[in-house]
Every structure is written in C-alpha cells, then in structure tokens.
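Sat 14:20. Reprocessing the chain from the morning session after the first attempt stalled halfway. Input below, unchanged.
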Amino acid sequence: MRIAARFNGPPGSGNGGYSAGLLATQLGLAPAEVTLRRPPPLDVDLTLDGTRLLHGADLIAEARATTEDKPDLVPPVSPDEAAEASKRYPGFTDHPFPTCYVCGPERSDGLGLFPGPLPDNRTAAPWPVQSTVDAVTMWAALDCPGGWSVIGAGRPYVLGRLAVWLDTLPTPGDTCVVMGQYLGGEGRKAQVLSTVYGPAGTPLATARATWIAI
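Finished this time. Tokens:
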C-alpha cells in the first residue's frame, strides 16, 4: 500500500481520514474503525500484516471491522446555511496545516472543505463533489469537518481514530453538505461526529472520531 504525496494532512504525512480509508478499503472492511499509531508516511511502500499497516518495523495504523451501532447523525443545515457558515471557516486565517488535502486553503487540488462554526458545537461546509469519488474520498471528507469542531486558534489537533459507516456515494457534480460536531473530551482527547448529506438532504455516510491535541 502506498499513500501518494498529494493526499497529505500535516506536511510530510498522510491526511488521517484518507489514510484510514485507504487501509480499510484495501482490507475490504466496512463498516470499519482505523486507529492511527504514527503519522502515515507518504510515497513509500507500506506493508499489510493482517489488519496492521507497517512501515518497516513501525506500526502505522490498525484496522478492524466494527459491529457497533451507527452513531447519531449530526443534525443538518441547508446548503445555503452551510455556504454561509463556510465563510467563517477559522482555517482561512489560522490553520495548523494549510496544505491539507481535505481542508487546506492553500490547496487548489484538494477537496475544498472549509467547515465553519455553528451553534451546538457543530460545523458545516458545502462539498462540491468532483468527478472522481470513492469510499476513500468519503473517509477523507468525514475527517476534517469533525476536527474543526474542536480545533481552535493555537490549539491544533490530529486524527487518532476514525470509524465510518458508508451507505452510498454521492454523484459527481453534486453539492453535498458535510457536518461536524464536538461531543466532549478528556485530557488531550476529543470525541467528534461527522455526517455527509446529499443534495436532497439524504444522509450518505457518518463517522465518529477521536482527535488528539498536539
């Protein structure tokens, strides 16, 4: 398995959602939960050892199929409300990783998800779906909008664990809405949810995640 350099999160390492989704789909696990143990390296050959992802002797990630119930959906907003919230995206002025494939404002070839704050610890972003979308793309799209419900100025977090329940893929050309919500936390850990809605308001996928302060 290899994570191409363009799918970065922090500089020099893979976007957490993309990397986790790539591992889960390589293993054919759905629904699945992936725990990231180290920053996933880019453009190097990684080894699958059962459900573990290795770089040499280093454990990068572990995956498992999950039989847990699907978590609650993040309550949606309309596409217009999501577009208005996105104008308030904190990452436009203070982003720990501005070249992130999913939410980096310095990327012209990423997903372009810019989740802005809403009441009740939620975030929302419109997602104009590109011509190529697959399960791995959906894992990536479910990543950062949840994280931005807890990330703040001078308070960077990275993804530690992501579980995804994928019902269906959007159609290329659709404009979806991606929601995130902070549930609570303890110490360096924060628990969040995220949900992707299709143009008609139909939920397409949802996720729960643990983010770690760095």
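DSSP finds four helices and ten strands in the chain.
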